[in-house]
Amino acid sequence: MRTAMLRSIKSSSSSTLLRRSYSSESAPERKVAILGAAGGIGQPLSLLMKLNPLVSSLSLYDIAGTPGVAADVSHINTRSEVVGYMGDENLGKALEGADVVIIPAGVPRKPGMTRDDLFNINAGIVKGLCTAIAKYCPHALVNMISNPVNSTVPIASEVFKKAGTYDEKRLFGVTTLDVVRAKTFYAGKAKVPVSGVNVPVVGGHAGVTILPLFSQATPQANNLSSEEIVALTKRTQDGGTEVVEAKAGKGSATLSMAYAGAIFADACLKGLNGVPDVVECSFVQSNVTELPFFASKVRLGKNGVEEVLGLGSLSDYEKQGLEALLPELKSSIEKGIKFANQN
Q1: For residue range 289-310, what is the model confidence (pLDDT) as tens digits?
Q2: Complete DSSP assignment for 286-297
Q3: How confident is the model at residue 112 (pLDDT cuts 50, 70, 90)?
Q4: Is 72 annotated as a binding-site member?
Q5: Given 205, 235, 297, 330, which residue is catalytic?
Q6: Is 39 among the annotated ligand-binding positions?
Q7: What does the alpha-carbon distance between residue 273 and residue 267 come to, in Å, rounded to a whole number?
Q8: Is residue 257 annotated as involved in ligand binding?
């Protein structure tokens, strides 16, 4: 029985893979560059992007360790050609012709560190990488994973403005992990299959700036008490800390972050390829609030952001959360802009 079951699983999954690779023959050529590809997020993200049939060229860059990661990933029998680039002198080659650039570079959060403790190290790294993007692939869609995203996205925007290449439609803070967590935690509490769940998450990408809109979750679960909604909100906001503590000094959320990064990059590629109605939450330049950047649902298309969607109707609890997050998000954005212009 078990053997027959395994055989059927194997044949159905291989036929799915065959269908996927077959359909990719007609997909346009797309180059994806991952900056920080040898790191904790970068390695699983490189693997997941190698599995994506929309990618024809996968460029892996880091300051060390990239030849090994590239050699390893390159043996996988999927569409994309893989090249590894190591060291500052090869960054330009890694970026040239990229359609999408994903940036997980930087140091991870350790126990007791806030995302702001990461700021000085990661802000400098992001600034250097974005200077190179402006020079070598100014029209690429940039997916920023490096924390603190609430500050690194504004830094990137200032670097691009200085270089004369800034296009607000092409710069994204990847907040998909907040959405992934909200979906998982909500499905568990509401006892609904997670595959059909959607939960918009707005605001920013740290602590209280993360605001899951459970009132807009689908399918709507009327069995959740207001206490449970508060607990779900808090768990979504503290999801990163939950993993940092569980790893006990050995790192932060790398695997789930790589998954979320791959989901968002896939959405960007679909948008570029003209797939209609691709909507994901992302931290982008926005008029949704008085702040210059804000995460909300975004429709993706051939130029990146097609439309920044509004917040929709909020519950009273969510309205309070929105008011509470604005000052902290404002100060993180300003901190990024100040860093970019001072240094």
Answers
A1: 999 999 999 999 999 999 999 9
A2: -SSSSSSEEEEE
A3: confident
A4: no
A5: 205
A6: yes
A7: 10
A8: yes
